[in-house]
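Entry 14. Structure prediction run on the chain below.
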Amino acid sequence: MTTRSRAWTVAALALTTAAVVWWLGSPAWSGAGDENQKLAGAATASSSALGLPPSAQGTDTSFFARRRVSSADGTADPLLVDGLRDTLEALLMEAGDTRDPAALKQRLAALVGHHFPAALATRALALAERYVDYRVALGSLRAPQDLTDPRALRDALEARHKVRLQFFDDTEYDALFAREADLDRYTLARLEIARNAQLTPEQSAQALQAADNELPKERRAERSAATEHMVAAAQTAAFNASNADERARYAARSTQYGEAAAQAMAQLDQNEQQWNQRLDQYSQARAQQGEGAGLQQLRQQLFTPEELQRIDAALALRALSTRTPGS
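Output returned:
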């Protein structure tokens, strides 16, 4: 495996894991369910094409067999548009954090007009209320114990998909999740290929091409941009591992990306260093005193409201990075 491919694989695994941590254990809803549902067995629609071991038989509703649907008459629904989920998340954020779904829904009724036109407000509120129920249902799922195992991630994505189908019809599902699902399937396919030691280099190349062919055209440009970011992130990780100083980082980045990008990355390095220092302080306090009012107070002191949503995912990624095997 080339250095670039290895960097892509590690970064892609981190991104996939971040998605699983967020959607299976979102801080706002992680305590919503008292019982944990067993993660469903995954179906592998394209495993044979990718040269991968066969998995459980799939159905037409499997996450890995599913493809985007289109309206029969070709007309567009003004509610079910790109960015719908971002709008719903913004609506929930404005409503504020609450452990009581009923109270949250009451707040949404008063705020829905801030995010949707009046003509769509009734339908939008009904959808938002089901979105709340969906987020509550996610609280009964858990991220896999081994976040470095592609098959465990596959099972987690399938389980999340089945929860989504309980609350949304096909057109709603596509507006809310299809874009993300396309990239999830593609990213996981690449991870599985990279981890399959039985494949020859030629077979790996063919499998990667098959995965590329499965990705819709509109997602390929996004994937290309994401790949560039992953490579840059992997380069930063390599700098951190070797304790490269600021001059060495700037010289390498300015040569590869240009001076403006190198300056922006240097600022990101500083921000990331400060973020990690606060994470260290929080982790040490949690290890020493455990969960409690004091730790909650420290969370509020160390992190902004936006950062509070990232803490659990960031700590999970830290654990992942210490367990990811070298290749």
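The CA atoms of residues 93 and 244 lie 39 Å apart.
Filed with the rest of this week's runs.
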